[in-house]
Specification:
This protein has 82 residues and is an alpha+beta fold. The chain has helices at residues 6-12, 34-45, 59-62, 64-77, and strands spanning 21-25, 48-52. A two-stranded parallel sheet has the order 1-2.
Length: 82
């Protein structure tokens, strides 16, 4: 994906067929409103959003237990394509 422009990547988002989970830290400093950014991505993927409160760019490293919990819950709900 590094060789593709943002526009090319954005154009492909609606093609996603599998269930999607967008996990973002509430203190992700690249975006003025991380929640809004996560929702924007999730809408295009027809996915879900989970914000890890207090985490930044790397919620899986900064808050591994909380991040694993939201991912495992998502996987459990979607294990049969539900």
């Amino acid at each position: 994906m590094r060789d593709r422009s943002d526009a090319e990547v954005e154009a492909r988002l609606p093609r996603a067929a599998a269930p999607n989970l967008v996990v973002m830290g509430s203190k992700y400093s690249d975006f003025p409103d991380p929640g809004a950014e996560a929702r924007w991505i999730a809408e295009r993927l027809r996915g879900e959003v989970q914000i890890v409160d207090g985490a930044g760019h790397y919620p899986q490293t900064e808050m591994p237990d909380e991040t694993a919990s939201v991912i495992l819950e998502f996987l459990q709900r979607n294990r049969h394509g539900a």
